[in-house]
UniProtKB/TrEMBL annotation:
UniProt protein name: ATP synthase epsilon chain
InterPro entries to which the protein is assigned, alphabetical: Alt_ATP_synth_F1_esu, ATP_synth_F1_dsu/esu, ATP_synth_F1_dsu/esu_N, ATPsynth_dsu/esu_N
Transmembrane segments: none
Residue span(s) of domain ATP synthase F1 complex delta/epsilon subunit N-terminal: 7-86
A Gene Ontology term for the protein's cellular component: plasma membrane
Superkingdom: Bacteria
One GO MF term: proton-transporting ATP synthase activity, rotational mechanism
Alphabetized NCBIfam families for the sequence: alt_F1F0_F1_eps
Length: 136
């Protein structure tokens, strides 16, 4: 059995893939605490909490992401990470700023979508009530 030197990592959002590439190691945070994965780590699945996920890339650089809650699945040399929201940052300072800006914008868009959905539901209930009225 040969020892793997890197692993394939995919960071997926509901609407797109934010990152897809090779990594020498990954660090993230689960509900039980921070953890790291190397290419020959045992296969496992874990939930992720809102935190910073870091990938050490084969060229020696590091890719860091501010992530929301999600799920990480490691199987063989493949790591799949599915999260609700995530942003890429060049360093921790810029990442914090991007997370605040991006997540606040997403929260506002979600609030507007929930408000629109509530209006649609109320309109549907009103129309059903009108259907039940006896015709004169």
């Amino acid at each position: 059995m040969t020892m793997a030197t890197d692993m394939s990592v995919a960071l997926q959002l509901p609407t797109r893939i934010l990152f897809e590439g090779r990594a020498d190691r990954l660090t993230a945070v689960a509900p039980t605490g921070a953890f790291g994965i190397l290419p020959n780590h045992v296969d496992f699945v874990t939930a992720l909490v809102p935190s910073v996920m870091a990938l050490h890339l084969p060229d020696g650089t590091e890719a860091i992401f501010g992530i929301d809650e999600g799920l990480l699945v490691k199987k063989g040399r493949n790591v799949s990470v599915a999260v609700l929201r995530a942003v890429y940052g060049d360093d921790l300072d810029s990442l914090q700023q991007r997370v605040e800006t991006s997540f606040m914008q997403m929260d506002e868009e979600e609030r507007q979508a929930r408000s629109a959905l509530s209006r649609l539901e109320a309109d549907m209930v009103r129309r059903f009530a009108e259907l039940q009225r006896p015709l004169l």
